[in-house]
TrEMBL record:
Residues 126-377, 808-1057 form the ABC transporter domain. It is found in: Membrane. The keyword Transmembrane helix applies. Its main location: membrane. Coiled coil: none annotated. This is ABC-2 type transporter-domain-containing protein. The chain crosses the membrane at residues 487-511, 517-543, 564-590, 596-617, 629-651, 736-756, 1152-1172, 1184-1202, 1223-1248, 1268-1289, 1296-1314, 1419-1440. It comes from Myxozyma melibiosi. It is a multi-pass membrane protein. Keywords: ATP-binding, Membrane, Nucleotide-binding, Repeat, Transmembrane, Transmembrane helix, Transport.
Length: 1461
């Protein structure tokens, strides 16, 4: 990237005439010229790079705003200007070479392991001794062993090997990414500097670029590249251009180099979020790394997903950077063409973790041919070298049979005894002699001094920007991310607005008398509760970005701590706005103290409290490995926060063993500050609460009556707010600023822990490929070497004359003509993606669909497969000359580019699932199973048929996943056509060859196959029968036969003016070059016009029309009733299989189940012991209400746990299984519910046992059994169906959690907990009656309080004096007869002690509950709510995800039409 930045600045200065075009050192010019000439593979390569340089130079000169067709400028001259400009500006360049000697990386010796399940988890205590022995005797093995070599600054090393051979391990090791390994031995030296020093001080100069494309999917390409350029913008920039100009130039140049300028405003996307194409996403990854300006980069499978031309341009760009700027590149490319291969200086070959060659690229082929192996005609050198790591497939020269090395050890022995090895040793020795560690350190220090700021930065910091400057760039990106995630932002604002209106109107105009005291405390606490639940929901946002932050930390882009701080700061405006909206509406509707001082103090404390609680949950997420674990910890945390805030259990009533939690709870201090702020200086009239009262006491003096209010004083009919909170809660307004300071202090503490947790907690490190088998199916009887070989098995049988499978025979011709496809962009512009495409596939043929990235290959495939549901499609698609019939989807298979599978299913289970649900129902089950076994044999997956899919590293590798993707479609037994989208993407040349050979065998067996492909080698390309070639815009430039040795397609292009194809040139690359495929390449002719004017086009059109005419005469195929159905299996079969698979998924995910269990276990114990042996006093009875409430609130974290999982399952279904008509969408909802319910019932039972008995509830069988049924059976049914219903309308887990918080707070607020039913405004009475929590509280609380005798505590009696001469009973008899309650001292003549309740039913009546009449009625209503949730799940899923009608789009179109009129 340093090259591009310098070029930009140098050309800008050139326009000012500020420098000379010639270098003064002529010898240097000549040396540079010779070096460049030597590096390029051929004259054609020089022309390609020259064209690229011309584009870059012209764009840079105009700040990338000018046209791209300026006059040519010589490439070498451009490089001269770069060097000259940097020298003039005094910029010190730095370069890094590497030497590695006897490099060995150790890891756990595990070629395969058994799958952990819930059953295994339960058995662990019994197997503890065995586990301890295994932990003490962990076996290690060498992942790679004995690697030697040297790569000088300015050189490129190509790494070749099969997946699983150790390529990625080697790349990580030389780049210093070794944390995940158990040990690294040998020497790694960067021009004499040890690896530890380099990674500590110059981490950004030595970088590992992973194979996976991990980006923020909601950011645009422009935002992604601008961020990468901005975070690495140096302090000293050539030409003294501004930082903003630097960022703009780097972004535009990289976007031009990789052909991304047209995607600036398009999201990057991922497998589930629509964005740029897969190839374009890979280019974004490459551009991001180059923007970082690293001097040494190890690239892992860097060209995956790129078309051949773009891959070559990437290699040429890398070549230019290394040659001129002396950068160093170590690159693993699994499918390297010959032109790419020749651009490298050196190559190393890895075979099963052993290095079998290292040396110049021009000696690699010769070395192995001299060994005795034979390179096949038209086989590229890279293919040949990679094939040697599976020597059984490589022919041996005559006379060398039985003499050539075969095992890795034999290859290593041959290598170390060879002259090439001795040459390498001599080069290494020379490199060591020439090393000057002191001088190199000085060079690095001087260069980085110019690049990095001097102020506000640690001297040894490896980052380009200071921490403050990192924050600036990250904050900008944070706001861009918020802008991209409109669903979450809208849901947050709507949640605050809706809740403020709802709760404000619920507590509307609270009376100023004492009757409003409880409601004021309730509404203040509810405000804190609402934002606490919302803050917990935000945890889901942090987990998807973890891998991205970790990657960019390795790139030395920024401190993760800076990202944590920026995330907090960028989220703050949304929180503040939400809070202001909520407070303004809520505060004045409720009628809290209408004083400016009180209002702003309320807003201040609520703001700070919300930020503090948010930081608390972010701290939990920062240190928790998974979201499930975080939700478990947060669930317990929310219990602590609610119980010990001082409202549910006042401080005097807290159990001594947990009272200390009150002081560790920031919400306790927030609640005190807010309640004291509200009650301070408030005098509450208590006339309506005098005891005794009634008609008999109207004329009685106040001296003989008392206010039945906490904090009341004798002979007074008013209660002071300050005295009320002091007596009831031990709160004081004098503590306000102390409390505020403590909340701020807790916020600072949580902030520091959150930042430190983010900085130092990394995701789980990578491990080697490990197959995970079902227990009982481990291949333990196999030798260890054979077990390790399982991960690399491929198809060995490439004999096309093998016996054909009659079940694969097809007879119908699939054709398409005049296919056009247009989409409307967000700005209203129409873009045509396919333009008048036509072609056909015949049974027994293999048709390749090629073109550069973004040309429309996948789009065409999706159109032909009828998988497009947006945009305008026109044209004809026929089967045997007739329109598509209703069974078309049932008769086709579609292998997607992304290998998406259920991670917990085995290979065999995946195939059987597809076969049973997609083959006709009339086929016997055993026959389907037998066919799956034939597919397993055909794909040679026998060795890992019982291995689970897992994740990369802990499951199937890339090749095995691709085979499974193909196998799943073959298991469906498509009778018409098989579509494949990039089946060789990410595979090495041998694996790609194996996959294409498999397709060839399928075609020979009678299958009709249409397949997109990016980087075919010459030999692989020739396996196809026909080619459909597209250029950008979806325009056809060729359709026809490929021919033997590709002569027919080559002849077409040569005849129509293209340059002659060389004998050694790859025909696939040749034709792509001809049409100008690639990021910056341009064709000399318009090949679309040439095609449409050619005789080939006319012949094709006539052939298709004749084909249609002839085939139309054939009688129409009768669609069987069975195939006319959308789904092959009946509904009950679908349900059975999906439910079984779902149960397997849960059983095989013990981490998820453990998180659930721990949440309910710890919460149950905590709540149980917080209310231990609850007293049946007035406050004790009320506390039991809150205890039951907390037991219900636990459903929120349980829903937060299940929602991410259900959404993940939904995404997999919608991306892969639904388009294939595997099963009905409703099955997904039912299966999710059925799989969740048993665990939720089980763990609710666990909670019940830990809570019910410690509290001391009624131990009778009748009461305990009823409580168990409601809480442990009905309530799990309710919150599970409720959570699943929410997932149907949620875009992601974070949005689902926010909606959950909003709706739960909504129904809780009307349940009579915080606002007594009698005080609920008339308008909201209906909500009290339809709130599900009303009935849960009614039935649960009524069951445990019915007939419970109440005994007031000494402090709870209302004490009054009777008139002289009367006893307490005589005086209060009429009052007690009317109001109830009892006198503790009826015969006393003074200090009468009155308790207002005698039994728990008295309290139930105050909150609108009646045990006798409501008990079974409540059960009925609860069933109604469960059924409602269940039905809502289906209705909402259909509206949001099945129905094509979109209300918002309809309204938008309607307004557009009106505007036009």
């Amino acid at each position: 990237m340093q090259t591009f930045a310098s070029m930009s600045s140098s050309n800008e200065n050139e326009s000012k005439g500020s420098f000379d075009l010639e270098l003064q050192d002529v010898d240097h010019q000549n040396a540079l010229q010779r070096e460049l000439t030597h590096r390029m593979a051929s004259g054609d390569d020089i022309d390609r790079v020259s064209r690229l340089s011309r584009v870059l130079t012209n764009l840079s000169a105009k700040n990338v705003e000018g046209a791209l067709d300026e006059d040519d400028l010589d490439f070498v001259q451009s490089l001269r200007r770069i060097l000259h400009q940097r020298e003039n500006d005094g910029i010190v360049d730095r370069s890094i070479g590497i030497l590695f000697e006897d490099l060995t990386v150790r890891g756990i010796d595990m070629g395969a392991k058994a799958l952990n399940t819930v059953g295994e988890l339960l058995m662990k205590p019994l197997k503890l001794p065995q586990a301890i022995r295994e932990a003490r005797n962990v076996q290690y093995r060498n992942i790679i062993e004995g690697f030697d070599g040297v790569v000088h600054a300015g050189e490129m090393l190509l790494v070749l090997g099969r997946p699983g051979s150790g390529c990625s391990t080697f790349l990580r090791a030389v780049a210093g990414e070794i944390d995940s390994f158990k040990g690294v031995t040998g020497e790694i030296s960067y021009d004499g500097i040890d690896q530890a020093t380099m990674k500590e001080r110059y981490k950004g100069d030595v970088v590992f670029s992973p194979e996976q494309d991990i980006h923020f999917p909601i950011l645009t390409v422009d935002e992604t590249l601008s961020f990468a350029a901005g975070i690495k913008a140096p302090r000293t920039r050539a030409g003294n251009i501004s930082r903003d100009q630097y960022v703009k130039d780097v972004r535009d140049i990289l976007a031009t180099v990789f052909g991304l300028r047209h995607t600036y405003n398009t999201r990057v996307g991922n497998d589930y979020i629509r964005g740029v194409s897969g190839g374009e996403r890979k280019r974004v990854s490459l551009a991001e790394v180059m923007a970082g300006g690293a001097r040494f980069v190890s690239w892992d499978n860097a060209t995956r997903g790129l078309d051949a031309s773009t891959a070559l341009e990437y290699a040429q760009t890398l070549r230019a950077s290394t040659t001129i700027m002396k950068n160093t590149a170590v690159v693993a490319i699994y499918q390297a063409g010959e032109n790419i291969y020749k651009l490298f200086d050196k190559v190393t070959v890895i075979y099963a973790g052993r290095q079998i060659f290292f040396g110049p690229v021009d000696k690699g082929k010769e070395y192995f041919e001299n060994m005795g192996y034979l390179c096949r005609p038209r086989q590229t050198t890279a293919e040949f070298l990679t094939a040697l790591t599976d020597p059984a497939r490589v022919p041996v020269r005559p006379g060398y049979e039985g003499k050539v090395p075969f095992t890795p050890e034999e290859f290593v022995a041959y290598w170390k005894s060879s002259d090439n090895y001795r040459e390498m040793e001599e080069e290494m020795a020379t490199y060591k002699r020439d090393m000057d560690p002191t001088g190199k350190l000085h060079e690095l220090m001087e260069s980085t001094k110019q690049e990095r700021p001097h102020r506000f930065k640690r001297k040894k910091s490896p980052y380009t920007l200071s921490f403050i400057m990192q924050l600036r760039v990250l904050i900008k990106r944070g706001f861009e991310r918020q802008k991209g995630d409109k669903a979450f932002m809208a849901s947050s604002l709507f949640s605050a607005l809706a809740q403020s209106l709802i709760v404000g109107s619920l507590f509307y105009n609270i009376t100023d008398t004492y009757n409003g005291a409880f409601s004021r405390g309730g509404c203040v606490f509810f405000a804190l509760l609402f934002f606490t639940i919302n803050a917990m929901a935000e945890m889901a946002l942090s987990y998807p970005q973890r891998m991205i932050v970790e990657k960019q930390k390795r790139f030395a882009f920024y401190h993760p701590a800076a990202e944590a701080i920026s995330a907090f700061l960028t989220a703050m405006p949304l929180r503040v706005i939400s809070m202001i909206i909520f407070t303004i509406i809520f505060y004045f509707l409720v009628n809290l103290q209408v004083k400016a001082g009180q209002f702003f103090l309320f807003l201040l404390v609520l703001q700070v409290s919300t930020l503090t609680i948010s930081l608390f949950f972010q701290m939990i997420s920062a240190v928790s490995p998974t979201l499930e674990v975080a939700n478990s910890i947060a669930g317990l945390g929310i219990m602590i926060i609610f119980i010990y805030a001082g409202f549910l259990i006042p401080l005097p009533l807290m159990k001594v063993w947990f009272r200390w939690l009150n002081y560790l709870n920031p919400l306790r201090f927030s609640f005190e500050a807010l309640l004291a702020n509200e009650m301070h200086a408030r005098e509450m009239d208590c006339t309506a609460n005098l005891i005794p009262s009634g008609a008999s006491y109207e004329n009685v003096s106040i001296d003989y009556r008392v206010c039945a209010a906490t904090g009341s004083e004798s002979a007074s009919d008013h209660v002071s707010g300050d005295r009320y909170i002091s007596t009831a809660f031990q709160f004081s307004f004098s503590h306000f600023w102390r409390d505020f300071g403590i909340v701020v202090a807790y916020g600072v503490l949580f902030f520091v822990l959150y930042v430190l947790g983010t900085e130092f907690t990394s995701p789980a490190g990578t491990v080697g490929d490990v197959l995970v088998f079902r227990r009982g199916h481990m291949p333990g009887d196999k030798p260890k070497k054979e077990l390790e070989k399982v991960a690399e098995n491929s198809i060995n049988n490439t004999d096309d004359t093998a016996e054909l499978d009659p079940d694969l025979q097809m007879t119908e011709i699939f054709s398409w003509q005049h296919v056009n496809y247009t989409v409307t962009l967000p700005n209203g512009e129409d873009r045509q993606l396919l333009c008048d495409v036509q072609g056909y596939t015949k049974p027994g043929t293999l048709t390749a669909l090629m073109g550069e990235s973004g040309a429309g290959k996948t789009t065409l495939l999706n159109n032909l497969a009828k998988r497009i549901n947006v945009g305008v499609i026109s044209g004809d698609i026929f089967v045997d000359g007739k329109p598509l019939q209703i069974d078309f989807k049932r008769r086709t298979g579609y292998v997607q580019q992304q290998d998406l599978h259920v991670a917990e299913s085995t290979v065999r289970e995946s195939l059987r699932f597809s076969a049973v649900l997609r083959q006709p129902a009339s086929v016997p089950l055993q026959e389907k199973y037998d066919y799956c076994e034939r597919v397993i044999e055909m794909l040679e997956m026998q060795d890992y048929a019982e291995a689970v899919v897992g994740v990369l590293g802990q499951g199937l590798n890339v090749e095995q996943r691709k085979k499974l993707s193909i196998g799943v479609e073959l298991a469906a037994k498509p009778s018409l056509l098989l579509f494949l989208d990039e089946p060789t993407s990410g595979l090495d040349s041998q694996s790609a060859w194996a996959i294409v050979q498999l397709l060839r065998k399928l075609a020979n067996a009678g299958q009709s196959i249409l397949c997109t492909i990016h980087q075919p080698s010459a030999t692989l390309f020739e396996q196809f029968d026909r080619l459909l070639l597209l250029r950008k815009g979806g325009q056809t430039v060729y359709f026809g036969p490929i021919g033997e040795s590709s002569h027919q397609v080559i002849e077409y292009f040569e005849t129509n003016g293209a340059a002659k194809c060389g004998d050694e040139e790859n025909p696939a690359e040749y034709i792509l070059n001809c049409i100008g495929a690639g990021a910056t390449a341009q064709a000399s002719s318009n090949w679309y016009d040439i095609w449409t004017a050619s005789s080939n086009f006319r012949e094709l059109t006539a052939e298709i029309e004749q084909m249609h005419a002839e085939l139309a005469k054939k009688p129409a195929r009768q669609v069987s009733k069975e195939l006319s159905r959308q789904y092959a299996a009946n509904y009950m079969t679908q349900l059975k299989l999906v439910v079984i698979r779902m149960f397997d998924q849960y059983w095989r995910d013990p981490q998820y189940i453990t998180a659930k269990a721990m949440l309910m276990l710890t919460s149950g114990l905590f709540v149980g012991f917080s209310f231990w042996h609850a007293d049946h006093t007035l406050q004790g009875i009320q506390n039991l209400l809150f205890g039951v409430f907390l037991s219900i609130i636990i459903g929120v974290p349980m829903m937060n746990q299940l929602e991410p999982r259900v959404i993940t399952l939904r995404e997999l279904y919608e991306v892969r299984e639904n388009p294939s008509n595997t099963y009905h969408w409703s099955i997904l909802l039912i299966a999710s519910l059925v799989a969740e319910i048993p665990y939720n019932v089980l763990f609710s039972t666990l909670y019940y046992c830990c809570y019910y008995w410690p509290v001391g509830f009624n131990r009778s069988t009748k009461a305990a059994g009823y409580q168990y049924f409601v809480y442990s059976v009905l309530y799990p049914l309710y919150y599970t169906t409720f959570g699943i219903a929410i997932t149907t309308i949620s875009a992601d887990a974070a949005t689902a959690n926010v909606i959950t918080g909003l709706l739960v707070c909504f129904v809780v607020s009307f349940a009579g907990i915080f606002q007594p039913p009698s005080a609920i405004p008339h308008f909201w009475k209906f909500m009290y009656r339809i709130s599900p929590f009303t009935y849960f509280l009614d039935t649960l609380l009524g069951n445990v309080l019915h007939d419970v005798e109440v005994e007031c505590a000494d402090t709870e009696f209302n004490i009054f004096n009777p008139p002289d001469g009367q006893t307490c009973y005589n005086y209060a008899e009429a009052f007690i007869a009317e109001e109830g309650g009892y006198l503790n001292n009826p015969n006393a003549t003074s200090s009468c002690q009155y308790c207002k309740w005698t039994v728990g039913d008295n309290y139930l009546s105050t909150v609108g509950m009646d045990y006798s009449t409501d008990r079974w009625r409540d059960i009925g209503f609860i069933f109604v709510f469960i059924i409602f949730n269940f039905c809502a799940s289906f209705i909402l899923y259909y509206i949001y995800r099945v129905s094509t009608f979109n209300l918002f789009t309809f309204v938008k179109v309607l307004f557009k039409k009106k505007a036009k009129k």
